[in-house]
Amino acid sequence: MATQTSPTTGQRYGVSRVCQIWALARSSFYAARQQKAAVAPPPPRQRPGPKPAITDEALLAAIHADLERSPWTGEGHRKVWARLRVIDTIRVSRKRILRLMRENTLLSPHRARTRTATPHDGHIITQAPNQMWATDATQIPTVRDGKVWLFGVIEHWNAGLLGWHVAKYGTRFEATQAVGMAVRQQFGHLGAGAARSLELRHDHGSNFMADHFHRQIKFWGITPSYAFVGEPQTNGVIERFFRTFKEQVVHGRIYQTIDDVRDAVRVFVDRYNAQWLIAKNDYRSPNDARTAWDQGAFRLAA
User: How far apart are CA 210 and CA 218, in angstroms?
Assistant: First the structure.
């Protein structure tokens, strides 16, 4: 008020006049002004400890670049963190990646599912390849051919897809085709006992419980391993693969014919085995994990 100009005289009111009108001592006015000037705004909160080698702004730009170059959709912060370490040699905390992606709405939307306790508390991940495989089937809608079936065979050790078959009907014969493809790929032939000592996890679907299917896998030396009824997590490796497959190449797309589905599966399987990062493989692809295993086996043999 003291600095305001009177519209009548054209002069400022001044501190003395204002204090006189308000019955306020001038010393109180000056004391309050000095106290206000002495209170400086608090400094911005700094991150405790040593400063990181890369700023949040630069790290966020690297995260955006990684998401742009990735051929996949819906990936979480763990895979971004792993690729930044391996490809860009940016070694930062995983929780820091999570914080930046959360603050900038870069995390994929998901729903937390509440699960009830189940009697299954075992392990389905093996310590070496070709000890346990899993097989299952899923359906994909098309415009002209209706729903078509995809059968898959997956390795429990590194979650690599070994065999697949797309067909119009999901019978026991089509189920056997996918297993035969996996046996030929891993063991080089389809003769008697080609996959001896191997276990094959599958559910209780009619195509997998048929006599023809069991006679054929027995001919190859494969022992069936049954998933628990009503507990798909006991066949979770192949179930997780189908979820990834549908998220990446089925949902949001319309396929005209079964041949379109077959072409999409062929491309996806090659890319999945070569590039999809999996936590249990130390964030390596199935092919990279198998290559590292083979190299280690060769060194031990030498």
Answer: 12
> Taking a C-beta distance cutoff of 8 angstroms, is the pair 133, 115 a contact?
no
**Sign of the alpha-carbon dihedral angle for 193, 195, 199, 200:** negative
| d(C-alpha 157, C-alpha 128), whole Å | 6
Fold entry, domain 133-301: Nucleotidyltransferase; domain 5 (3.30.420)
Closest CA to 137 of 217, 222, 209: 209
**200 is written with which tokens?**
């094959």
pLDDT computed for residue 202 by the predictor: 95
Determine the Cα–Cα distance for residues 90 and 97; give it in Å rounded to an integer. Answer: 11
- What pLDDT, on the 0 to 100 scale, is given for residue 140? 96
> Which tokens is 53 given?
């080698």
Q: Tell me: the pLDDT tens digits for 141-181?
A: 999 999 999 999 999 999 999 999 999 999 999 999 999 99
Domain ranges of the chain: 1-37, 56-103, 133-301
Whether residue 2 is predicted with pLDDT greater than 70 in this model: the reply is no
Instruction: List C-alpha distances in Å: 145 to 101, 139, 149, 260.
Output: 41, 12, 11, 11
* pLDDT over 90 (residue 271): yes
Structure tokens that stand for 115 in this block: 């699960």
Beta strands 147-155 and 132-141 are antiparallel
Residue 77 is encoded by which pair of tokens?
């912060």
Supply the mean pLDDT for the chain: 88
> Which residues in 34-62 are b (16+ Cβ under 10 Å) and which e?
eeeeeeeeeeeeeeeeeeeebeeeebbeb
**Predicted structure pTM score:** 0.74
